[in-house]
Amino acid sequence: MSKAVGNIYIVVAPSGAGKTSLVAALLQAEPTVELSVSYTTRPARAGEVDGQHYHFVGHAEFQAMIEGQDFLEYAEVYGNFYGTSVRWLQSRLEQGRDILLEIDWQGAEQVRKVFPEAVGIFILPPSIEELERRLRGRGTDSEEVILRRLASARSEIDKVAEYDYIVVNDDFERAKGDLVSIFRARRLRASVQTQRLAPALARMGVQRD
User: Is residue 17 part of an annotated ligand binding site?
Assistant: First the structure.
């Protein structure tokens, strides 16, 4: 792959931790960040729009994309497949875009093998008990599914130390502020700013190596 100019941010969380809501709030606060829209074989839920929330495809089409090496990463989650388009991602990075991947831990591991510089962010629930309360409060899952999600959550949380940042979603507004601050701080790093502000720095007489 050619050298990426933009940045990749990976946001991972167990089901019910509030990842989707926090990512939506982040994108509203930081419009320069672009969300990667995954391909999935799961059916669209009420209110979901093809191409906006996911690219909804059948199992046969997804398998063909795997064989065509169209995915940077893909994983099976609760019987459905999810994948990230490598061509789309690379083109956006080359344009200098900051891309956010809202994926699971399996996908995160695959992405970081290709892009070790990707920034990993883990959204942590305040407790397993609170996570269970949120899952049950949805009213959309069977008891079997809830127990499976809780078991998966414990396994995912075991990997939390592998990430660069941890945001605890105990209070939504505070968690949103923490998430936004990560993106703003990364953008203000000297290595990024000297590249972005090169013309202004040159006018000030600053010579870059």
Answer: yes
